[in-house]
Design a protein that fits this description.
Distance between the termini: 24 Å
Number of domains: 1
Shape: globular
CATH architecture: Sandwich
Helix content: under 10%
Radius of gyration: 15 Å
Number of helices: 1
Order of helices and strands: EHEEEEEEEEEEE
Length: 189
């Protein structure tokens, strides 16, 4: 896999068992800024409609052809009901390469737990967090985890429809009681 310069974050490792050459190429561009032609919409996470629960996710709306960023999402903490936050978004057409969804964050000494995304449609999980790609900053510190929407790890692209993005804290409380504040990013170009 060809390495790019260190100006932009790049994937640290791929967890998926099989990654096609197309997926690997898209992964290298995954953490790069969206295309200049794509519109970017930024919303305060705490003002989105919804409760952030499984049955009432925070609504990001239609993300087709744009990048939607929910900024200032409060930390996820250990304990039942607090380690997950759900977001919903709609694609009115299939996702195009490169499209992705996930979270950006800045780890610190007291908040060492990453924000891990998974993707579902209705009651079915489409992608577990293990399909996610890690990104890191220039100093080598993790700063994001993203799921590819196009191309998908098994090939193809995410079709039109409404999806639920689950952000979760997976580390044990002994390691860290919470994640840092984070941003949710859905880029469906």
């Amino acid at each position: 896999m060809k390495r790019h310069g260190t100006v932009f974050p790049r994937p640290l490792r791929k967890v998926a068992a099989v990654v096609t050459a197309t997926t690997a190429a898209a992964a290298m561009t995954l953490a790069l800024a969206p295309s200049a032609a794509a519109a970017t919409y930024q919303y305060d996470c705490r003002r989105l409609a919804g409760a952030g629960t499984y049955s009432n996710p925070l609504a990001l709306g239609n993300v087709t052809g744009r990048t939607v960023v929910a900024v200032n999402c409060p930390p996820l903490t250990s304990g039942a009901g607090y380690a997950n936050r759900y977001f919903s978004f709609t694609l009115t057409r299939s996702a195009r390469v490169p499209s992705y969804a996930g979270a950006s964050f800045v780890l610190n000494r007291t908040q060492k737990s990453a924000v891990n995304p998974s993707l579902a449609r209705g009651p079915y999980t489409i992608m577990h967090t293990s399909a996610g790609l890690w990104t890191y900053d220039r100093s080598g510190v993790f700063n994001g985890r993203y799921l590819p929407l196009a191309p998908l790890p098994g090939g193809g692209v995410l079709p039109a429809g409404t999806y639920r993005l689950n952000t979760q804290k997976l580390d044990s409380p002994l390691r860290s009681l919470s994640t840092p504040w984070f941003n949710v990013v859905v880029a469906a170009l």
